[in-house]
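Design request, tokens follow.
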């Protein structure tokens, strides 16, 4: 999906965004963020490494849905120390494709 394909559902988009963070493809992260909530820039942190994603629950995001939700746990290492980010995210259709809107 980083090469131009669009995600078919919110969970797929969440997984591709996690990979983009892990691979430092920050342009993709910004491109898949809703323009109303997207920051001006996302900066790379050389001390932060995303290592594993657990999708805990996914709802909505079907063919006729306008929004969907993904609850996840993202594991990282920062300065050699392990950490976890827990979030329930909202995804919406924007201009015919799924985009990340923000945490709920």
């Amino acid at each position: 999906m980083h090469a131009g394909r669009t995600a078919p559902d919110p969970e797929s988009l969440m997984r591709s965004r996690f990979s983009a963070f892990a691979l430092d493809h920050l342009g993709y992260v910004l491109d898949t963020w809703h323009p109303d909530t997207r920051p001006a820039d996302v900066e790379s942190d050389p001390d932060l490494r995303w290592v594993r994603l657990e999708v805990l629950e996914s709802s909505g995001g079907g063919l006729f849905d306008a929004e969907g939700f993904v609850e996840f746990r993202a594991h990282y290492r920062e300065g050699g120390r392990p950490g976890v980010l827990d979030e329930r995210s909202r995804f919406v259709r924007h201009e015919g494709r799924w985009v990340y809107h923000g945490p709920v």
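Comment from the thread starter after seeing the answer: thanks! The mean pLDDT is 95.
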